[in-house]
Amino acid sequence: xxxxxxxxxxxxxxxxxxxxxxxxxxxxxxxxxxxxxxxxxxxxxxxxxxxxxxxxxxxxxxxxxxxxxxxxxxxxxxxxxxxxxxxxxxxxxxxxxxxxxxxxxxxxxxxxxxxxxxxxxxxxxxxxxxxxxxxxxxxxxxxxxxxxxxxxxxxxxxxxxxxxxxxxxxxxxxxxxxxxxxxxxxxxxxxxxxxxxxxxxxxxxxxxxxxxxxxxxxxxxx
Length: 222
Hints:
The chain has 222 residues and is of the alpha/beta class. The chain has a single domain (5-219), classed as Aldolase class I (TIM Barrel, Alpha-Beta Barrel), CATH 3.20.20. The chain has eight helices and ten strands.
């Protein structure tokens, strides 16, 4: 049976990290400084939370940096070994990362706004370890780079999954009620969730358990 990996994003404390781990999360997301969106943490807080996450669970550090030196410095300050790049980078800066991040796993976010998202797969694929499809609007007056709570065109996301040889995570507006349909339609390697398992901004154990149960149910039919 194919198992869908689960990343719980917008983790705000060590207690939330442990709650996600106990629920069976494969990865947690720690959000750095962003122009907008929930869950933003200081570099010190990211470092402190990541330090206590057990082996076998990945820590993704979300950065809005778009220069190779900025990304590298952000990683040094936080001590995290997987970076989620939420903005687009020039090809020159992307290739520079190849030289400075030799042991760091890179996950490139593609905001699925229109069919142009498909063209980004070929651009980034030689330089990253995975993709994450989200519903942000990076070119808005106030850029949205994640945590929107909105879904996007899953048919287009499925095409991106089919076009990529790298693992693809699906994010954007997921919850216990729609994640089964999302998995069936997109066939992602993993799913990523922030607002769909929160109440009043805090990680909700009941919503989290329902979400994990829905994924296990969906996996039985993959």
